[in-house]
Amino acid sequence: MLLGLVLPTSGTVQLMGEPMPKGARRVLPRVGALIEGPAHYGHLSGRANLALLDAAGPGGSRRTRTARIDTVLEQVGLAGVGRKPVKAYSLGMRQRLGLGAALLRRPELLVLDEPTNGLDPQGIHEIRDLLLELHRGGTTVFLSSHLLAEVEQLCSRVGVLDRGRLVLQDQLATLTAPTGATVVETPDPQRVRAALDGRILDLDAGSAVVRGADPAEVNAALVAAGVPVTGLRLQRPSLEEVVLAAASSSADRVDAPGERSRR
Amino acid sequence: MIAVELRKLFRRPRTWVTIALLNALPVLVAVLLALTDLAPRPGEGPVFLSAVLTNGTLYPLAALAIVLPLFLPIAVALIAGDSVAGEAQGGTLRYLLARPAGRTRLLVAKLVSIMVFVLVTVFVVAVVGYLVGRLLFDVQPLGGTSVSGTALSSTEIAWRTLMAIGYVAVSMLGVAAFALFFSTLTDSPLAAMLGALGILVASSLLFTLDAASSFAPYLPTRYWLAFVDLFREPILWRDVVRGCALQGVYVVVLLGAAWANFTTKDISS
């Protein structure tokens, strides 16, 4: 709907201050998108695909086209295969090419749906670095993913969708802020209970959760009591816990949880 | 945008395979005729075929008459049916529209590229027919005989052949419009093509049915073979003009429907 593909039955959509789909011709050239996986013409080369897509709409100057294609192929790591037909590409290469197409006009806003789909771990790392670099350059990246690890590593602001409704939207740092407790890892949790009686929030075989937001203070108390400590950290809710809590309002859901996040 | 669509169409191997296959049948018929000297008697078989043994320059017309009833419409329906539905199926439609290509602009560009394809195809069939005709049959430099029996000079034949090429191309526009409309309705290029072909088969069948005579003049295939009238003396314009007008009506109505449907459609594939 944001990109004018699906038309709203009621209500209005605004993208970068312009109404959609009315302002599409003005806004969309400033937006790059990767929607539901990449799609290309298999019989044409990656380079020809990018050239055709660039020529198909406004805002892609013909003069700079070749140079821009070179740049994005370089950026997404396809410079060596730009002339091969796309049907010979692997899934990861197609994903890179789709990302390249989104970057072709140096967009101010990138709308990405599962951008690391089909990539190997090195590829995911590469793309993450590329996105972070674009972000430093001033590009807004709107990422939709159900890979929470990816969201945690990339996003600064997170929204959670539950059955098509935005149930939560906040800074990632706020959502995963310390809870005011410290997790102590120790081979002997019972001795922690003895040393810090009354402050224990949770206890299991290899760790204890202790009230107190200062690990150093907790550590000092434990060491003074002679309790062996193998690890100490502030307790933070993981993004998964945040998402599960936010979406738990509808326990009868049948679909997989979808998260949408933004940075 | 139109240039983009044309590049897409003509850089696609399938387009050329289609055109090549379309030429295979007339060439085969010509070879058989030349080898056996057994032309159908005048008034039987595809039009003009009886005349080509004596004058090979008429073979372009015979070739058009051979491919017109079935092969040419299949080729046009294939390309037109694929135009929008093929992009939808491949997923490239959403990227084109998010580019943004503009829905009306995209539809117009698709239509123009289909029309160019029709023209190129008909023209190639005629040229191949001409070459084959010159190569395999006797050539009468003094022109030929009109269907009405009077003599025609070779320049006149050339003119009328060009007009016939144009008329055949116009006749295909109705098929193209049907296929393009269906192409905006479905995400399956095959369904769009078969839908258009179904209309043509139904039209051809109803045309032969006396009970359907009340609307026979409005069937899309009614005036297809009217290009023969261009070779009467004097030219019998009535059916040719009606054929063009009828195709025009089909094109306007179906394109209107295609536009109305495509510009208000949710692209979810």
Can you walk me through this structure?
The complex is a heterodimer of chains A (263) and B (269). Chain A is of the alpha+beta class. Chain A folds into two domains: 13-144, P-loop containing nucleotide triphosphate hydrolases (Rossmann fold, 3-Layer(aba) Sandwich); 181-234, Alpha-Beta Plaits, CATH 3.30.70. Chain A is 35% helix and 21% strand. Chain A contains ten helices and twelve strands. Chain A has helices spanning 24-27, 46-55, 65-75, 91-103, 121-136, 148-154, 172-175, 189-195, 215-224, 239-247; strands at 13-15, 18-20, 31-34, 109-113, 140-144, 157-162, 165-171, 181-185, 200-203, 207-211, 231-234, 258-262. In chain A, the strands form three sheets. Chain A has a six-stranded mixed beta sheet. A four-stranded antiparallel beta sheet of chain A has the order 9-10-8-11, covered by helices on one side. In chain A, α5 (121-136) links the parallel β4 and β5 (140-144). The relative contact order of chain A is 0.11. Mean pLDDT of chain A is 83; it is low at 256-263. Chain B has 269 residues and is an all-alpha fold. Chain B has one domain (2-263). Chain B is 67% helix and 1% strand. Chain B has a two-stranded antiparallel ribbon. In chain B, α4 runs antiparallel to α8. The mean pLDDT of chain B is 87. The A-B interface holds A 3-7, 24-25, 28-29, 31, 33, 35-44, 48, 52-53, 55-58, 101 and B 1, 3-4, 7-8, 11-13, 90-92, 94-102, 264, 266-268.
Labels describing this entry:
heterodimer, A: 263 residues, alpha+beta, Rossmann fold, Alpha-Beta Plaits, 2 domains, four-stranded antiparallel β-sheet, 10 helices, 35% helix, 21% strand, elongated, disordered C terminus, B: 269 residues, mainly alpha, 9 helices
